[in-house]
Each structure stands twice: as structure tokens, then as C-alpha cells.
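QA checklist item 7 of 12: single-chain prediction sanity check.
[x] sequence parsed
[x] length recorded as 304
[x] structure emitted
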Amino acid sequence: MKVEWTGVMPAVTTKFTKNDELDMNMFEVNIKAQLEAGVNGIVLGGTLGEASTLTDDEKRILIEETVRITADKIPVVINIAEQTTKGAVEAAHKAEKYGAHGLMMLPPMRYKSTDYETVQYFKTIARSTDLPIMIYNNPVDYKIEVTLDMFEELLVHSNIQAVKESTRDISNITRIRNRFGNRLNILCGVDTLALESIAAGADGWVAGLVCAFPAETVAICTLVKAGRIAEALEIYRWFMPLLELDISPQLVQNIKLAEVGTGLGTEHVREPRLPLQGEERIRVQKIIDKGLKNRPTLPAYKLL
């Protein structure tokens, strides 16, 4: 299946039972809600997916089950975040074997690689697989920026096709477009900058709060692309307090609590993460409750 790298691609949470096992029943409920809303792909094993806590076998199950649930309607992409080039190559091979349609790739973990080392890392993985690749460019959280000059080198590989743009600088979207035209698809990776990014020319949105609010997320993206900015803004302004739950060290707990509110998940996280406690839990729950109480009526965005 061809990955188009456009529209809304949820970075889904991994569902666990109270016994710390994969909860594939609730996971399927969520994926089906994403399909119903009209998302364009599923991204597994990102930060929201608690990737660093997953075993190889759990990643296999998640890929295979998501491919089954989506039934070739949309592509399934898995994140690769490894400490070694060898480990990343092995992860790419396994992803292809298990049926993933594409890869999202972070620079090397823990070690702050130089520009040259980062480029060679991505190039080695691109040469090792036929799967299409989206580079996750998030220097704020991961301390390594993939610059335009670095992309110039990387784009000699035809399977490097997209960037998850999380620099927090919306003008970078214009710089990428001016430099590479449509050769590199751009997806916003920061929930609180999504409308602005799509209006500036991003092709889509790798979203977080979509896990709890799939229809609202897809509606915003679709309306902006259709030029119906005022309608998108109305939804976006309602959504913003919830979207801000994504830009927090506790984003996993925040979004899982929101999923509880919409019936699309549970609060179970994998230690060392723990469910929200005390005043912070009260604060986040109030935001979720207010959002649910004032949830907007959506236009018929699927007809656009």
C-alpha cells in the first residue's frame, strides 16, 4: 500500500490492561473510531505509544493487529527510535516483515549525533529497506535538528518522503516548500500549531489528541484544506485547551485520561509512568470535562 503522507495520521496510544498486558480489545475500539472519523493513516510506537517500554513481540502484535483492523483502508506506520544504527536497521526489517507500510524515524536516541552522523544514520536505514520513511524532526525534545541542508543530502533516497515537522517554527514549512517543492511532504507534529501549519502549506497532521477526539481533529484538517478557515477556527478554539495537554511531559497520561472521557481508552500506563495524581489530575480532568460539555457540532466535513 502506498503511503500518501497527507491528512490526519494519529500517533495512537498503546492500550494496556490493569495487569500490564496489551489490551487489544480497547485498542481495536480506538482504531475503528479513527477509521470512522476518516483518518489517513495510523502511526504506532511513538512517544504516545510508549514505544520505549514495548517489547519486540508487542510491537509485532501491534503492527499485525492494526493491519488486520484497518483492512488495507489506510496505511500503518511504525516509529523507529533506536540507540544504534544496527538496531534501527533490524527494527526496519521487522516492521516490513510484520506488514507495516511505512516508517517514522527519529535520530539516534541518547547520543547527540553530529549533523554528519545523523545524515549517515538515516541514509543507512533508507538503503536497508524499501519502506517509505517520514523523518521526525523534533529538536526541542530530542536535541537534534535535521536542517534543510541535511534534507538536501537525504532526499537522494527516494523512500525518504516526508517530515514530521516539530521545530515549533511555522515559517520552516515555507522554507521546506521553497527549497524542495512537493518532493518532501510536510506533516505538523505539534497539536497546538496544527491549523496554522496546514494553512501555511503542511500536507497533514500527525496528531495526539485525535486519540480521544478523532472527528474533531479530522474536521479541522479537512476544513482548512477546503479553505473554510472560519469553521475550522471555531472548532480549533474550542479544542486548544485540550490540545495543550499534548505539550507536556505527562502527555501520555493526559491523553489517556481524555480517552477515558470519550470512551476510547483506559488510563492504564506502563511503569515508570503512573496515572495522574493530586492537583494535576484535578486540573487536567477539569479541562477534559469542560471540553466534553462544550463539544461542538461538526459540519459535514466528510462530504468535502
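[x] summary fact logged: The mean pLDDT is 97.
[ ] second reviewer sign-off
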